[in-house]
Design brief:
Blueprint (H helix, E strand, L loop, with lengths): L1 E11 L4 E11 L5 H12 L18 E4 L2 E4 L8 E5 L6 E3 L2 E2 L2 H17 L11 H5 L7 H5 L11 H12 L8 H7 L19 H12 L7
Helix pairs in contact: 2-5, 5-6, 5-7
FE2/S2 (inorganic) cluster binds next to loops.
C-alpha cells in the first residue's frame, strides 16, 4: 500500500472561502480517485463535498477536473500526485459539486416537448447512430472540452445537441428539433467538429451534423 497525495480545490459557500487543501491517502495499485475521495470523507475530513452514485461509469455524477482534464472520478486511476478541481464553466455549489441546473433545465425543456410532440407512426428514420447517442450519461465533461460552451444558457453544447439529435432521429418524434437547435446556437458548431465524449460517442458526426443538415446549415467536415 502506497501513500498518494491529493490536492483538492475547496469552496465553502457560507464564508465564500476558496483554497487548495492537501490530503495524504493510502492507496493500492488499482484504486480510483473516487475511492480516495471516499477515504478522505470517511477518515480524514467529513466536510469534503462531491457527487457520486453508481461508483462505476453509469450515473455521470462524478465528473470533475483531474490533473487538468475533465474525467469521471470512478474511472480515473490515482497517480502519486493528483490535482482535483470542480468541472470548469459551471457554477460551483461547494468544493467539487457544480450546479447542473443550466443544463438540466435545457434537458427538461427538450423532454417536455418530446412528450407533447410524440407521434406514433410518424416519420421513419432511425440510423444506427441514434443508439450510440443513447449512451450519454450526462456527466457534463464534454462541456469542458467544447470551445464554444462558456456556461451560458443561450448555447446548448455537445450534451444538449446530442440529446436533441437523439429525439430528432426517433421515428415518433414530432418536435422541431432543428429549430430548437438553432435557438440554442448550433450554427456556432459548423466550424468546430471537435466534440469530445468520455464514452466515445461521435457527438458531432451522429448528433450535430444531422441537425445542422436538417436546419439547412452546411458543414464541410
Ligand atoms: S460514480 Fe457514477 S459515473 Fe462515476
Amino acid at each position: 500500500m502506497n501513500t498518494v497525495k491529493l490536492r483538492i480545490r475547496r469552496y465553502l459557500p457560507d464564508s465564500g472561502q476558496a483554497y487548495w487543501q492537501e490530503y495524504q491517502v493510502p492507496a493500492g495499485p488499482d484504486e480510483t480517485v473516487l475511492s480516495a475521495l471516499l477515504y478522505i470523507r470517511e477518515h480524514l475530513d467529513s466536510t469534503l463535498a462531491f457527487r457520486f452514485s453508481c461508483r462505476y461509469k453509469h450515473c455521470g455524477l462524478c465528473g470533475m477536473e483531474i490533473n487538468g482534464r475533465a474525467r469521471l472520478a470512478c474511472l480515473t486511476r490515482l497517480k502519486a500526485e493528483n490535482t482535483i478541481q470542480p468541472l470548469p464553466k459551471l457554477p460551483v455549489i461547494r468544493d467539487l459539486v457544480v450546479d447542473r441546473q443550466v443544463i438540466t433545465s435545457l434537458l427538461d425543456g427538450i423532454r417536455a416537448s418530446w412528450q407533447e410532440g410524440f407521434q406514433p407512426g410518424g416519420k421513419v428514420l432511425e440510423p444506427p447512430g441514434r443508439r450510440r447517442l443513447a449512451a450519454c450519461n450526462e456527466c457534463l465533461c464534454c462541456l469542458s472540452y467544447c470551445p464554444g460552451y462558456q456556461g451560458e444558457s443561450s448555447f446548448g453544447g455537445p450534451l444538449v445537441f446530442a440529446r436533441l439529435a437523439w429525439y430528432f432521429l426517433h421515428p415518433a418524434d414530432g418536435g422541431d428539433r432543428p429549430l430548437e437547435a438553432i435557438g440554442l446556437g448550433i450554427h456556432r458548431c459548423q466550424d468546430c467538429p471537435g466534440c469530445r465524449c468520455l464514452r466515445g460517442i461521435p457527438v458531432f458526426r451522429e448528433g450535430v451534423r444531422p441537425l445542422l443538415a436538417a436546419a439547412g446549415i452546411g458543414h464541410a467536415g
